[in-house]
Protein 1
Amino acid sequence: ILVCTPLLSMYGKCGSIVEAEDVFGTLPHRDIVAWTAMMSAYNEQGQGEKALKLYGLMQIYGVSPNELTCVCAFQACAILADTEKVAKNGSAARIGHALHADSSFRGFASDAHVGTAILSMYAKCGALEEVENVFNGLLRRDTVAWNAMLTAYMDLQQGLNTLFLYKEMRQQCVTLDDGTMVCLLQACSLIGSLETTRQLHFAAVFAGYEQIPSVSSTLVDAYGGCGNMVDASTFSNELCEPDLVFWTACLCVYSGQGDAMASMVILEEMKLASNKVDEVVLTLVLASCSHTGLVAEGLEYFYLMNADRSISINLKHYGILLDLFGRVGDFKRIFSILEELPMEAD
RNA sequence: AGAGGUGGGUGUUA
């Protein structure tokens, strides 16, 4: 069991959920750690429902949850709420309340990790009041808890509150980490606060965070969201290793601005930096072409990337292609795409 | 430490 549990955990993190299930299934005796690891594996793959079922099953088998298990349960519930969104009735919220009551009863709710997990779960359920109650009730607030609260305000469209919270963090001398930067920059992008973006940019450089991939990408997001895109190539020159997500964030901004030329320049820069290109890049390049009416170019990129085995074309790509042809009134090609669609349309 | 909390890019409504 000491070998199999890390193994299934590994499988879960690699996305090999079937293998993880196999390992879990062959365990003769499942202790709390194994159950928790399997739940975590489901969570990693966004299978909140399965994780929650496992949580119930575990207790039928007479195994009681501990703090770590509860964290996984709350994560699972958060995933459920996130995927439920428009579709349903708030059943995730009801499950969440029940889980919350249960872990309070067990005395786990005061655990720092559990508390943060509960907070995030309520945020995904859209329950602002519960979120604030949990945050105020936390005995000790570490950076992750503050970050979770920042993210919660973000999720709940409370852009200004996010910035107020940031102020409070500084007043209370909370340690800011790269996660804090990312949350705040996302808020800046959301509310279009250029001034704060600049402040954070400075703070990030000062703290040495700007080289962290998640931070540099979010900086691009933030500047883009403020309609103040810095010259991406200048910015990228300051980075040691601009990664795929960084370039994609640039593409996203340019594509949103309808600047197809800039998008193509980015593509070239990516080639120079020998960065890979993936399906997300393709959606943005196509969108760029579509917005600018560059039919031939769009098609060319599509075929080019279609030939690349490492890029899996999905329905979004076809959607944009249809849009591209729709804008120039080429219904012939629209129908032929629809006829030859290699997957089911949504 | 055999399991755990927050955080980075993706279309259509031009």
Protein 2
Amino acid sequence: MHSPHHLDEMLPRKARLHLLVRDGPVPAPSSARKVQCSACHLRRICLPAGLSESELERVDDRLVTSLRKVAHGQTLFRAGDRFNALFQIWTGFFKTVIGSSQGREQVTGFQMAGDLMGVDGIDMGLHSVDAIALEDSQVCVIAYEDIEALGRELPPMQRHLHRIMSREIVNDHAAMLRLGSMFAEERVAAFLLSLSDRLRTRGFSPSSLVLRMRREEIGSYLGLKLETVSRTLSKFQANGLLFVCQRQIQITDPAGLKHVLDGVTA
Amino acid sequence: MHSPHHLDEMLPRKARLHLLVRDGPVPAPSSARKVQCSACHLRRICLPAGLSESELERVDDRLVTSLRKVAHGQTLFRAGDRFNALFQIWTGFFKTVIGSSQGREQVTGFQMAGDLMGVDGIDMGLHSVDAIALEDSQVCVIAYEDIEALGRELPPMQRHLHRIMSREIVNDHAAMLRLGSMFAEERVAAFLLSLSDRLRTRGFSPSSLVLRMRREEIGSYLGLKLETVSRTLSKFQANGLLFVCQRQIQITDPAGLKHVLDGVTA
DNA sequence: CGCGAACTTGAGGCGTGTCAACCCCTGTGG
DNA sequence: CCACAGGGGTTGACACGCCTCAAGTTCGCG
């Protein structure tokens, strides 16, 4: 039924921990005391295209004031915390969670390098979700006032922030479609394809994914129980769509995964 | 079990069609050829607080270029349409729908007077949802370039737009919590309370609501089938929480409705 | 080496979907 | 003025997808 090629790639696991590590040397913003967005490997994601030299200088001067490390399992901010800065992920991986006070939890999203976190706090001046690091991470701290001011001075920056927030809204609508109108298999397929897409955008392999989150967190995000997520992944493997080895997933038949979604997307 | 007071208010139905109509005369922006945001009854919702006289003039001069009527059942824009303007509802009621191409539909939100629509299109330059009028409506058309320019000139306007988009993100997260972590009764209760809240914010009665959407549309928004929505409303009525009369709902026990949510919210 | 967390897999139960009948209200045309 | 058609809503019986509960496995870590 399924073709076992690439199966060798799945073992041994420890040897593949570097799968998602960048392949070139990384300019270290912390080394120079002042953060240099213009030299950052993520500038194509974090900054709008087509900024002039002088504009880039202004960004370097005023945008990122500091770098903050967040250890695996620690929170960057909690629901209810006072809002005054946005956070752009430099390295690492986060989840955002709502309603964690005591009852049920709902994961509202997973964020990776280049993603912006914290815009949920702009409206009320208070954060509305917990942001929790799923691995040791580093984030660029951007004072909200600074990005406001920069947006007024540089129209491309203004447009860029609008686009980021717009994209988050569109993503949330896609999440609502998953949660409201799809079967378990469709939700998991959509989740994997979305993750694969985001990895490709960042220059990583779209077929080799290392999940940074547990089954329970995937389930919360998709409105399923962890057992259902596990069963669904097993079924996909049985159908030859992918190989599962703990948190590493090798997509062998992306077209087949998309086919699971037929009838929903269009 | 339930107390039948206010039952008389439910009949006859035709006599109550004016329930949600404003109680004062409405300044008509279309009468003066130029739209006057500064005189609009919705200015406390559409505009940031604390604008000076001269700033208000600038808003009047440059923000709203035209008014557009959308008949009941017609679309304001469709997914895939080119984006170039935002729409602020002046009168009426809309739903936004994703994935309507042919398969399943997911309602992503309901919008009423004062709500801004169309920000989903900023990112890709294309709208990602259909916006459909649930009753005869009128919307203020705001060219995106104009609101960008105004944001650069007037920091409160810039902040205002950011807050609106942030609020939409927070709302979407609440929707994800409903869809991913709640039982049918909890979803319906949360929906009614949210609607009640938005009506109060606009100065309407929070206990007398006239639903502008069908059961099927409520169900889509909540990830339920119309029969489940209907059954749940009937059960709430049997439990004395509210009275249902077609699309009119009288909330008689808001605390009881909130109690349905206990264990989820906190 | 042994413990615990994360994951997998199976069996059975429950909440919601499915299907269908019926009612109400509205609009239309004879 | 009434007959009729059609859309929206309600309610019931049954089916099914996912949840619940539980046992067993693998992996990581002290």
